[in-house]
Amino acid sequence: MMNLPNQINLRETFSQRPLRKTLANFAVKSRPTSNYLIATFTNNLINQLPHSLINLTFADMIKWITKLFSSTKKEENIDNMKKYLIVGLGNIGAEYVNTRHNIGFKVLDFLARKESLSFETVKLGALAEYKFKGRTFFLLKPNTYMNLSGKAVKYWMDKENIPLENIFVITDDLNLPFGTIRIRKKGSDGGHNGLKNINQILNTQEYTRFRFGISDEFKKGQQVDYVLGDWDEDEKAKLPERLEVASEIIKSFGTAGLENTMTTFNGK
Fold it and tell me: What pLDDT sits at residue 9?
């Protein structure tokens, strides 16, 4: 292994001498045969230094490098603010595809078809990436079943470094008439097991949720059958228009912001 020349004084190297002069001095002291490669490399480095850098001191260079990495980190944070995790809640399996409880999956499937996106099987779910107006939307359908949805949300939130305010969860709501839209920036689980698990895993209720009304047209004791039942013919006829609106809500959340999205779409 080649050693650095003994004559190099580290204090001198990191003094206020201009970078070009310090490197030139380093090259001269490296000319013995044993350090020929170091001298050649240093001379090449001097010749390739940008004009704006040749008069910098080493101390200035360290400050410049620190600032460069700080700027890179800032840009990374800005990019993260343009990333959104859109979670459609539902249950996996053919028997659940057209059920009311799977409206979260259905909304994401509709958007994916409309924008020619493909879902890929990934850890804890199926994921599609949608780019729109400089934003990146990660459309996630957890494969954990409804009651363990929080595990998938937390994993992908951390993996993609997505801030809590950019989480958007789509779920069904028995307390709203069919197709009614309610978007909230925070709130309780309202008895919904998927939201309950997300609240527990994230240890907060302060994330955006989009509740899609499925109504409560069932007799006493038949709630489970109703929620896990298929849409009736009237609902099927109205569903496409509601899904179209839902897909626009997702895009609005990322581009217009939560407040504007709530003002535009709530109650419609």
Answer: 47
